[in-house]
């Protein structure tokens, strides 16, 4: 593992790199998919992503706690054993906007990602895998969000 | 889409099932906490703190590398698990944060009174928290062993004990109302018994900690400050003798507990 | 600054004593603690510094007993209970029971009276922080006893009946001033200290004693 | 400028597990300030991961990713000494790039 000092040293160099443009032209993403991130339902989010079909699949897994002590940080993971997966999505059904994160896959990584989401209340959470031929497969589970401490 | 709707309906049924058994709840929460252990955002503050320690800053453009945290100038490893303690140069019992304030004033030329008045998380206060986070991390897994040889340290323990049992405020709460008995909870939060060693990485041995609920890094000063707020007490000054005496009481009681700081908390 | 000097002098007196004996006396430590409290706390928002500077007799006696590790002697305890019992304000309109649904909301809320609250924000009862009440709420504390089936277990089928009167009155009194029944109870004195008003106490009593309340279902 | 990320990349077998912590408010856009005004959303919107300067993953995030985000993924055919680079860009256009060496 690299030391913290190295990270800091690197970041100084890196600041310069970012300033001098064009070193990573790949960083210019396709335009942020605003429609997908504004969607209020799982269906609408997927519509904005493009796939025509959606089915539950045992080959997709959503990982997360059964109970989250605090909705501010809920660890969620999506992974799949399906071939030709183009994108992995993490969604929280009862959030004001359902789509939490979208990951564009490549052959160089495992089709498994984890991150942490905010959840306003207990809800179903979804992992969706979109394949190259435009099909979407999902898994879901319920995550309960408990109240905090003294409430003060 | 039909399937999804059907499944959503099923989800609704699941929600309507009777409440989960208590045991399952606490197991579920343990599982949740375990999931958060890997990747504690406190690491971000740790890195910042180490950088701040070695950086020339303040009116005197100096680093903190000559700061004496109790084990000699510049000695960081092991200092955390022996604080608060008596310092001869200030003739005061000091905790980690008040000691950092002293060093920032004497070595770097900062105005200690001004920093003490700054709200938590702002300006130099957030730097003190980052420094405390890194310094605590340098004593990770070491066992608490606060000195009690100087008379002032003994006096502060006794004062801290009185503060721990002080019932006051609109709700008559003392620290002991919540932390005076074994195996109690507020809502679902387990409450450590703080009149003795509550175990490795529990209570005093778990701060500074990253608070998941608000995404903030808290040192012991802020932890105690918020305890007092919830106790409905008036406001304890930053690095005030009351907070330090309470720290001595908790720290001495925690003797032998291994430090897990910086921890991650709900 | 003046207080700071005072404190230092108190402390150094303590230390001089410590020089020859092992520790300052109990009364010296008590007054040093008072001086430190005075120098350390300040008013903030609605949390006035008086809240720690002038403890009432109940809190003073109970804190001291806690420090010593010994419970209050029976006579002092009884005197404190009698004093607190006398302070209980019984419902002005003779109505002990309000709406249990409102009571549930008050029991859920832990808000009010901190320095981040305002004077006109409604206070909660903090009940679930320490008690199990409605079994459907899984997030409850255990500092106080479970109150699930509170009325049922006490045989209250009609809170308005003569038979239920002692339990109804005790429930009111306990919420209004817990120390009337247990001198050094951990429970706040909700009515006595102005945490909850009469109307709110009525709702909590209903939550506990109304046969329609989920507590008794 | 934003604080550095913490990146750990650990090789095991024929791949490396990458764990990243980013320093960011991730303001949801749902919260109100003391005066009742909505605090505008402020969040990391784009993330790119590179293995020895080759892009292996890109991501788009919304404001529901938790504050001080955590991200974990595994890079195939990565070995000790390889370089892992992460970049992010938030909705205000602020960016950050950090690197780590696989161990």
Strands, helices and their partners?
The complex is a heterotetramer of chains A (152), B (266), C (217) and D (103).
Chain A: H1 4-19, H2 34-38, H3 42-49, E1 53-56, E2 60-63, E3 67-68, E4 74-80, E5 85-92, E6 99-104, E7 109-117, E8 123-131, E9 135-145
Parallel strand pairs in A: 1-9, 3-9
Antiparallel strand pairs in A: 2-4, 4-7, 5-6, 5-8, 8-9
Chain C: H1 2-20, H2 26-40, E1 41-42, H3 50-53, H4 57-68, H5 74-87, H6 100-108, H7 127-130, H8 150-153, H9 165-176, H10 198-209
Helix pairs in contact in C: 1-2, 6-10, 9-10
Chain D: E1 6-12, E2 15-21, E3 44-51, E4 54-61, E5 70-76, E6 83-90, E7 95-101
Antiparallel strand pairs in D: 1-2, 2-5, 3-4, 3-6, 6-7
Task: Report what the structure shows.
The complex is a heterotetramer of chains A (about 150), B (about 270), C (about 220) and D (about 100). With about 150 residues, chain A is α+β, with helices and mostly antiparallel strands. Chain A has a single domain (about 30-145), classed as Immunoglobulin-like. In chain A, about 20% of the residues lie in helices and about 40% in strands. Chain A has 3 helices and 9 strands, in the order H-H-H-E-E-E-E-E-E-E-E-E. Chain A has helices spanning about 5-20, 35-40, 40-50, and strands at about 55, 60-65, 65-70, 75-80, 85-90, 100-105, 110-115, 125-130, 135-145. In chain A, strands 1, 3, 5, 6, 8 and 9 form a 6-stranded mixed β-sheet that branches. A 3-stranded antiparallel β-sheet of chain A has the order 2-4-7, with no helix packed on it. The longest helix of chain A has 16 residues, at about 5-20. Mean pLDDT of chain A is about 80; it is low at about 1-30 and about 150. In chain B, about 45% of the residues lie in helices and about 10% in strands. Chain B is built from 10 helices and 8 strands. Chain B has helices at about 1-15, 20-35, 40-55, 95-105, 110-115, 125-135, 150-165, 175-180, 220-230, 240-255; strands at about 85, 90-95, 185, 190, 210, 215-220, 235, 265. Chain B has a 3-stranded mixed β-sheet. In chain B, strand 1 (about 85) and strand 2 (about 90-95) form a beta hairpin. The two termini of chain B are about 35 Å apart. Helix content of chain C is about 50%, strand content about 0%. Chain C contains 10 helices and 1 strand. The longest helix of chain C is centred in the N-terminal third of the chain and has 19 residues, at about 1-20. Chain C starts with a helix and ends in an 8-residue tail after the last helix. Chain D has one domain (about 5-30, about 40-100): Immunoglobulin-like, CATH 2.60.40.10. Chain D has strands at about 5-10, 15-20, 45-50, 55-60, 70-75, 85-90, 95-100. In chain D, strands 4-3-6-7 form a 4-stranded antiparallel β-sheet, with no helix packed on it. In chain D, strands 1-2-5 form a 3-stranded antiparallel β-sheet, with no helix packed on it. In chain D, a hairpin with a 4-residue loop joins strand 6 (about 85-90) and strand 7 (about 95-100). The radius of gyration of chain D is 15 Å and the shape is elongated. Chain D starts with 5 loop residues before the first strand and ends with a strand. The relative contact order of chain D is 0.32. The model of chain D has no long low-confidence stretch (mean pLDDT about 95). At the B-C interface, helix 7, helix 8, strand 3, strand 7 and helix 10 of B face helix 1, helix 2, strand 1, helix 4 and helix 7 of C. Strand 6 (about 100-105) of chain A pairs antiparallel with strand 4 of chain D.
């Amino acid at each position: 593992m690299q030391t913290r000092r190295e990270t800091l040293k690197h970041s100084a160099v890196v600041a310069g790199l970012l300033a001098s443009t064009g070193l990573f032209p790949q960083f210019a993403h396709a335009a942020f998919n605003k429609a997908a991130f504004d969607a209020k339902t799982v269906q609408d989010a997927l519509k904005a992503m493009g796939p025509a079909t959606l089915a539950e699949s045992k080959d997709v897994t959503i990982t997360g706690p059964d109970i989250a002590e605090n909705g501010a940080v809920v660890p969620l993971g999506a992974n799949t054993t399906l071939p030709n997966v183009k994108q992995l999505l993490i969604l929280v059904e009862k959030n004001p906007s359902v789509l939490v994160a979208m990951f564009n896959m490549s052959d160089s990584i495992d089709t498994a990602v984890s991150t942490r989401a905010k959840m306003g209340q207990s809800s179903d959470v979804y992992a969706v895998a979109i394949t190259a031929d435009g099909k979407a497969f999902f898994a879901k589970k319920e995550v309960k969000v408990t109240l905090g401490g003294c409430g003060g | 889409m039909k399937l999804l709707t059907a499944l959503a309906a099923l989800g609704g049924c699941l929600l309507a099932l009777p409440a989960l058994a208590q045991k399952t709840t606490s197991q579920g929460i343990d599982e949740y906490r375990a999931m958060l252990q890997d990747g504690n955002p406190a690491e971000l503050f740790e890195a910042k703190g180490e950088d701040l320690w070695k950086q020339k800053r303040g009116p005197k453009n100096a680093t903190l590398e000559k700061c004496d945290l109790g084990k000699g100038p510049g000695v960081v490893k092991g200092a955390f698990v022996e604080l608060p303690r008596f310092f001869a140069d200030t003739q005061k019992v000091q905790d980690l944060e008040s000691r950092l304030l002293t060093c920032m004033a004497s070595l770097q030329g900062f105005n200690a009174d001004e920093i003490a008045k700054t709200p938590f998380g702002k300006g130099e206060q957030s730097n003190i928290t980052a420094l405390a986070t890194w310094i605590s991390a340098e004593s990770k897994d070491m066992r608490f062993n606060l000195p009690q040889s100087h008379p002032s340290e003994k006096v502060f323990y006794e004062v801290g004990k009185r503060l721990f049992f002080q019932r006051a405020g609109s709700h008559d709460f003392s620290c002991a109302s919540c932390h005076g008995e074994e195996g109690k909870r507020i809502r679902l939060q387990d409450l450590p018994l703080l009149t003795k060693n509550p175990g490795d990485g529990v209570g005093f041995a778990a701060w500074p900690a990253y608070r998941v609920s608000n995404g903030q890094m808290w040192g012991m000063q802020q932890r105690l400050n918020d305890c007092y707020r919830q106790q409905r007490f008036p406001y304890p000054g930053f690095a005030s003798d009351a907070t330090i005496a309470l720290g001595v009481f908790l720290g001495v009681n925690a003797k032998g507990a291994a430090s897990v700081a910086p921890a991650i908390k709900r | 600054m003046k207080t700071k000097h005072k404190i230092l002098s108190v402390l150094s007196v303590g230390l001089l004593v410590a020089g020859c004996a092992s520790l300052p006396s109990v009364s010296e430590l008590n007054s040093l603690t008072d001086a430190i409290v005075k120098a350390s706390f300040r008013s903030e928002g609605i949390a006035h510094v008086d809240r720690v500077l002038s403890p009432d007799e109940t809190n003073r006696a109970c804190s001291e007993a806690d420090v010593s590790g010994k419970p209050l002697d029976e006579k002092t305890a009884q005197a404190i209970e009698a004093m607190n019992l006398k302070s209980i304000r019984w419902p002005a309109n003779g109505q002990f029971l309000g709406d249990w649904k409102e009571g549930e909301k008050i029991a859920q809320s832990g808000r009010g009276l901190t320095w981040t609250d305002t004077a006109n924000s409604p206070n909660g009862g903090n009940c679930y922080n320490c008690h199990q009440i409605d079994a459907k709420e899984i997030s409850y504390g255990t500092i106080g006893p479970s109150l699930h089936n509170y009325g049922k277990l006490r045989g209250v089928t009609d809170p308005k009946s003569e038979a239920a009167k002692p339990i109804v009155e005790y429930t009111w009194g306990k919420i209004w001033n817990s120390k009337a029944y247990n001198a050094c109870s951990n429970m706040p004195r909700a009515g006595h200290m102005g945490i909850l008003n009469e109307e709110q106490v009525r709702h909590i009593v209903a939550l506990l004693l109304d046969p329609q309340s989920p507590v008794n279902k | 400028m934003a604080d550095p990320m913490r990146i750990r990349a650990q090789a095991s077998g024929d791949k490396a597990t990458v764990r990243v912590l980013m320093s960011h408010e991730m303001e949801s856009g749902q919260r109100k300030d003391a005066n009742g005004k909505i605090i505008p959303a402020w969040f990391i919107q784009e993330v790119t991961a590179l293995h020895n300067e080759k892009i292996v993953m890109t991501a788009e995030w919304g404001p529901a990713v938790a504050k001080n985000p955590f991200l974990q993924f595994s890079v195939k055919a990565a070995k000790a000494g390889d370089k892992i680079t992460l970049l992010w860009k938030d909705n205000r256009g602020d960016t950050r790039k950090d690197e780590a060496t696989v161990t």
